[in-house]
């Protein structure tokens, strides 16, 4: 009598089919993760830019139209109507932000002073945080394609 044999392993064809299916899944999923990280950086930098612009505008409103200095340090301090920093009831304005937010493309929060408004391609370094015109209070992203935002 012949007894049916028992299989204890996968055949080579079965293993190859599984590998091909996994490769196809990986090829379709990995680009989506890459795009989502780019989208996240773009969203974060635009949100940070919006926050900076709104806080600069609030500072200007409370300080008779005068924008913060080239370092934006006034946004992180309590000030009086003239912009002098201090503490107590005589310094009712601010702080507007805890610190200057980071540009997620460069992981820097440095401020480069520019004279153009709006920022021009020649102003962009691509390795800094923000481009700021202290005369007008305009601020932009230090990024080769996003500086026009």
Outline the structure in words.
With 149 residues, this protein is mainly α. A three-stranded mixed β-sheet has the order 1-2-3, with helices on one face. A hairpin with a 4-residue loop joins strand 2 (130-133) and strand 3. Helix content is 34%, strand content 7%. The mean pLDDT is 91. It is elongated, with a radius of gyration of 27 Å.
Which properties best describe this structure?
149 residues, mainly alpha, three-stranded mixed β-sheet, 1 helix, 34% helix, elongated
For the CA atoms, what is the radius of gyration? 27 Å
Q: With helices defined by DSSP (H or I, 4 residues minimum), what is the helix count?
A: 1
Share of helix among residues? 25-40%
Q: What spatial form do the alpha-carbon principal axes imply? A: elongated
Question: Secondary-structure map with pairings?
Answer:
Layout: H1 12-62, E1 111-113, E2 130-133, E3 138-141
Short description, anyone?
The chain has 149 residues and is mainly alpha-helical. It contains one helix and three strands; from the N terminus they run H-E-E-E.
């Amino acid at each position: 009598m012949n007894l049916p044999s028992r299989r204890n392993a996968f055949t080579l064809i079965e293993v190859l089919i599984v590998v091909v299916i996994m490769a196809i899944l990986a090829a379709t999923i990995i680009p989506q993760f890459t795009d989502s990280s780019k989208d996240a950086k773009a969203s974060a930098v635009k949100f940070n830019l919006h926050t900076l612009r709104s806080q600069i505008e609030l500072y200007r409103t409370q300080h008779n139209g005068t924008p913060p200095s080239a370092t934006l340090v006034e946004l992180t301090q309590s000030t009086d109507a003239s912009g002098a920093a201090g503490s107590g009831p005589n310094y009712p304005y601010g702080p507007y932000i805890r610190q200057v937010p980071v540009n997620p493309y460069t992981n820097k929060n440095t401020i480069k002073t520019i004279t153009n408004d709006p920022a021009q391609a020649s102003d962009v370094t691509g390795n800094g945080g923000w481009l700021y015109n202290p005369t007008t209070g305009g601020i932009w992203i230090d990024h080769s394609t996003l500086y026009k935002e």
